[in-house]
Design a protein that fits this description.
The protein is mostly helical. α6 packs across α7, α6 packs antiparallel against α10 and α7 packs across α10. It comes from Streptomyces massasporeus. This is Heme oxygenase (Biliverdin-producing). Keywords: Heme, Iron, Metal-binding. InterPro entries: Haem_Oase, Haem_Oase-like, Haem_Oase-like_multi-hlx. Pfam families: Heme_oxygenase.
């Protein structure tokens, strides 16, 4: 029988590939956009992770989502340090969420309030992505804009408390496989995972509209 972690990965593969192939991210990784676009993207992540980590505090004792609440994953403090570097100390007075970002963050918050298993879908798509593909963005940012290696500007992508990401991801998949629920509930989580990717992609599209490439 296929494990739930495998089901989650394979069933959402198309949406995952769409996220990886978004025009905004392709342009960012292709050195076609400036540091302002990177800073704006980092701002949007601050809102998304604000919802995720506020939800984590609510769910720490929850029997379903609680095992996924692991402080070594938390990114909000690193994001704030990056934004202070990218925007300056007063960045909170100027940071604004795009409508697509607000919709994304609100969905995460709603799942945290009412459906812990749905929250796991968002947790999975974000944090395991950060540990994997996020490292490509870090490397690109360091090389393109001369940021200190694993330092200011890219701290979000550096998991200092996870020395072995591969082992961590294996343990994470074991947690996914142990999520309680019948087949219907697991299919609902898969659907929410796809929705999470869709919300993320909508945020990328909005960023792409804000930073179009000019001829």
């Amino acid at each position: 029988m296929e494990s739930f972690s495998t089901l989650l990965r394979t069933a959402s593969r198309e949406q995952h590939e769409e996220a990886r192939g978004s025009t905004f991210i392709s342009d960012l990784l292709g050195h076609k956009l400036g540091v302002e676009a990177f800073a704006r993207y980092t701002e949007q992540l601050w809102f998304v992770y604000g919802a995720l980590e506020s939800g984590a505090r609510q769910l720490a004792a929850d029997p379903v989502a609680g095992p996924f609440v692991q402080p070594e994953l938390f990114r909000l403090t690193a994001l704030e340090r990056d934004l202070e570097f990218l925007r300056g100390p007063g960045r909170r007075t100027t940071a604004g969420a795009l409508p697509a970002t607000l919709e994304y963050a609100e969905r995460i918050a709603a799942c945290a309030r009412t459906w812990p298993a749905g929250y796991i879908a968002h947790h999975y798509t974000r944090y395991l992505g950060d540990l994997s593909g996020g490292q490509i963005i870090r490397d690109t940012a360091e090389k393109t804009w001369g940021f200190p290696k694993k330092g200011d500007g890219v701290r979000f992508y550096v998991f200092e408390e996870i020395p072995n990401p591969a082992a961590f991801k294996r343990a994470y998949c074991e947690l996914l496989d142990a999520v309680p629920g019948d087949e219907l509930e697991r299919q609902r989580i898969v659907a929410e995972c796809k929705r999470a990717y869709g919300l993320n992609n909508a945020m990328f599209e909005a960023l792409g509209e804000e930073f179009p490439l000019t001829a």
